[in-house]
Write a structure and sequence with these properties.
The chain has 447 residues and is of the alpha+beta class. The protein is built from 13 helices and 22 strands. α1 runs parallel beside α6 and α1 crosses α12.
Length: 447
Amino acid sequence: MKNRMFDVVIVGGGISGCALTYLLSKYTDVKSIAVLEKYDSLAPLNSNARSNSQTLHCGDIETNYKLEKAKLVKRQANMLVNYAKTVDINDFLYKFPKMILAVGDDECERLEKRHHEFAEAFPYMELWDAERIAEVEPAVALIDGKPRPEKIMASGCTDEYCAVNFGHLSKSFINSARKTNTEINVSLSSEVEKISKFDDHYELVTPQGTFMAKFVVVSAGAHSLLLANQLGHGLDLSILPMAGSFYYVPKMLNGKVYTMQNDKLPFAALHGDPDLVEMEKTRLGPTALVLPKLERYTKGTYLDFWRSLKLDRKVIRVFWDLMKDSTIRNYIFRNFAFEIPIIRQKLFAKDAQKIIPSLKAEDLEYAKGIGGLRPQVINKTTMVLQLGEASIMPENENLIFNMTPSPGATTCLGNAYRDTKIIAEQLGLNLDIEQLANDLLDGQDFD
């Protein structure tokens, strides 16, 4: 493969890289694409079904979204639903009941207000009282067959797509890309060790040889920043790796139950989900833990963490500002405790009882090997923890570095569409926007 020139080289064979491969091959006249994956299979890390909550985030049950963001996320989520209609085998998208659960007078009041505000954008969502919740999710509303003592309310639905196996979806994207006229080369066990810039191309050094590209997109999670730094980009950014852990209980929920977000916490609120690879179990979580490595359940990457953290007074100042807030500080310490084997189940059970009030600590099983790691970006110029979308797009360069999508893998096609338009413009490719909009966006392009 040495010195083979490709139009586009994509670093990372997870959901983001595979989605971009599909859109480029399907809707542009790009001639050749190489996908370089560090490990020996596609979607081995955060896109793997065991590494994420398997949720199709539509903006309907995520109470940390404002209405405008929820509308945008809904359109991006619908791109995945529309894609599923184009393939012969859909082994990645599932329907379950789902709801936002409010517990107590204050939460119920906030939820009811939100439900009415979002009703026009999400007309399929219904406002449920305790009796209706008990019909859909008995374990949420009842204790030993009797209504739980607190006031509860939910905004929910029973017939919408809400769960995704993003690992299977990644492979589906590549299979679909291979049916186009574009040459698709997927090179596994091909960790990119170095990217070099030349006058009219880039060279990427891997154990499988050197790949040449007119345009390079790096979608390698937390490692994207390190590769950007090699070329002098993103030097004002730092990575804070946040790991999520989960617990299993025997199947107690029929679908997804999300709780109300604490506005002071930038991390995901607790939720319960069916597990697409362990269907006889319910998965509860995630916890949130800062880990000094860039990959959750692989060897090494500790040194990579320190290289990407770039610890200095600015980073320390961001940490200090976070820890000054007692709500965030207590949350972080409590989540550290969730990792201590002797006490974690009893502590977690207290939180999980908000969803399943009859739950006991002995019902919980720590889900070993389950959960991923999401890089949160620290902007050392603004000195803030930059939640949400994080990409580096250097001016006058045929380079894109994607670090973390928001919200998660749901936006893979939306982000890929953004990158596809940039690549098409830079390389002079024809992009069939009308066909893409008809296939994936219900006939109407993004504004």
